[in-house]
Design brief:
Largest sheet: 9 strands, mixed
Distance between the termini: 40 Å
Number of domains: 2
């Protein structure tokens, strides 16, 4: 069996052209790249929300810019786009402009919400979803995630980034129908299988630790990771951050379905893949592997489950959290507040807030901080 090759190497945003040269050479992509002439290539960055490039909540525009140059020079029809967590069609271009991706796309940006297509999906949580037709029908998808922590999945990488195929309220439907951590991870793999990418390049130059994917602490790692297999890229991300791969439900489920290698030993790793010292993972029950389902449902729910509190001095009253809550738990008065009876702990409000006004509170936050 051919081993999946994984590249990991030092890189900087200032010399991203050199980084992509290393990717092409290290993965033997020369003839593959030449064969993209005349083909439709969709570059899929992470466009989380209304965040500036220096906040490092989205894929860095320098990586997107050089990818556009690379595939355009090869003669491909290049398209760049994502469905961010906020606003659907109306805010898509605004998010692209704020993150710097619109300018980096150099005329190749596409509003991924513009051409919706309802498709059938094999999943125990839903039977149909609305996705970007252009992304679905592209000859090649280049998946370009940002390495960050995530309060619901622990890490966000290759598999999670393809969640951006979904348009409009479908993301909220997934959260509502697959609200538990393991369920949500399974749903992510269901969606990933719709259209696995041909190439994944992970922006781990400036990563995010703690309670990401938007309100965590920036952590410079100075790395680019690349593979033809997204599961291999996520396995490498786990190794780099020191996360236990068995605790990452999306990774385990993808491996069980035969979508990628089960361990680094099954991979051809080119470069030094050394865990970053004391990389902080998010404040969730998932950190504590010895706790069983009963403990999670009862003791954790009653005592340790993270709660969100609003820092009013940081809130701009923009309504993004209220307008995008999948269950209607987020209410709006002078400031937003949460109906705890409706809240499913999807943390979308925490993820999408452009001001980082929502913070985790409670005993679990304090216990986790001590462990770190």
């Amino acid at each position: 069996m051919t081993q999946e090759r994984l590249l990991v190497f030092d890189a900087s945003y200032e010399r991203m052209d050199q980084a992509l040269e290393q990717v092409v050479e290290g993965l033997d992509l020369g003839s593959w790249l030449a064969a993209t002439r005349g083909k439709k290539v969709w570059i899929k960055p992470n466009m989380l929300g209304l965040f500036k490039p220096e906040q490092h909540c989205a894929t860095h525009p320098s990586l997107v810019r050089e990818l556009v140059k690379l595939f355009s020079a090869a003669g491909a029809e290049v398209m760049v786009g994502d469905n961010p967590g906020v606003g659907g069609y109306g805010l898509n271009e605004k998010v692209a402009r704020r993150t710097g991706i619109l300018a980096a796309a150099d005329g190749c940006f596409r509003n991924a919400s513009a051409k919706p297509k309802e498709i059938e999906i094999r999943s125990r949580f839903f039977t149909k979803m609305v996705v970007s037709e252009e992304m679905l029908q592209a000859d090649l998808v280049i998946n370009v995630p940002k390495l960050k922590t995530h309060s619901l999945t622990v890490l966000t990488g290759a598999i999670k980034n393809m969640f951006g195929m979904l348009i409009g309220g479908c993301k909220g439907q997934v959260h509502a129908h697959a609200s538990r951590m393991e369920e949500f991870s399974e749903a992510l793999v269901d969606l990933y299988q719709i259209r696995p990418p041909e190439l994944t390049i992970v922006d781990a130059i400036m990563a995010m630790e703690g309670n990401g994917p938007s309100a965590g602490k920036l952590r410079p790692l100075g790395k680019i990771m690349a593979s033809r297999n997204g599961v291999a890229a996520d396995l490498a991300a786990a190794a780099l951050t020191g996360a236990d791969p068995n605790s990452l439900h999306f990774l385990r489920i993808a491996q069980e379905r035969g979508l990628g290698p089960r361990s680094l030993a099954e991979m051809d790793v080119q470069g030094k893949l050394k865990p970053a010292a004391r990389f902080k993972l998010p404040t969730t029950i998932q950190r504590f592997g010895f706790l069983g389902q009963w403990f999670n449902d009862y003791f954790y729910t009653a005592l340790l489950r993270p709660t969100l509190g609003l820092q009013q001095d940081q809130c701009s009253q923009c309504r993004i959290c209220a307008d995008h809550c999948p269950t209607g738990a987020m209410q709006m008065a002078d400031y937003p507040w949460i109906d705890q009876d409706k809240c499913i702990r999807c943390f979308c409000c925490h993820e999408l807030c452009p001001e980082n006004a929502w913070e985790f509170r409670g005993l679990m936050r304090r216990l986790s901080a001590r462990r770190l």
